[in-house]
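Changelog note: in this version the structure field was regenerated for every chain. One regenerated record is shown below for reference.
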Amino acid sequence: MAALTKRKKVFAQIVKPDKVYSIEEAVEAIQQFPAVKFDETVEIHIDLNIDPKNSDQAVRGSVVLPHGTGKKIRIAVFCKGENLQKARAVGVELVGADDLIEKVANGFLDFDKVVATPDMMRDLSKLGKILGPRGLMPSPKAGTVTNDIEKVISELRAGRIEFRNDKQGDIHAGVGKRSFSSEQLKENIHHFIDALTHTKPSSVKGIFFKHVFLSTTMGPGLKLSI
């Protein structure tokens, strides 16, 4: 049997394999994980009790985390007319209509979030195969198709994140950074779970969360009791 690395030995002392943690206990354990050379993201992974092949059970939404994500994001805004000036006035650099669509179609993807006004959606649909697989396609349900672009940009910068189930019926999201205080992480996690709970499809009976795990980018998962 291969010898445990120094990091794994520390994890073995902190993490109890059969233990089901409360959010508070899991956050405290994560804060004891050995440090790495970058500020790890604290991630939540949730196995939902849904049939991902059933469109009536699709889960999608957004939430503004009270303490943000700890990540500086770059936003691309697809709009025209007076909305161009509104977006530029709040400091968005990637703003445009057909010109920005062409730029993305040619391979430019140096942005983290996309916002669009409703009048751009027909033209933007041609980027569906590029933006869709990356989770960047704007959607009215996620609140990223709107005429109130200033509000949405402000929320995204403040820590608004979108979530949607994957093909396995799971949700994955970053809820903060290792550098956050325990209280900040706890509040973000509780806020995220509360928002996700409110998206439970009416056709889903019984429990909504089958399994929930909290981890860091380089650390092991801790099973949560929700």
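Spot check on this record: The longest strand covers residues 41-48. The mean pLDDT is 92.
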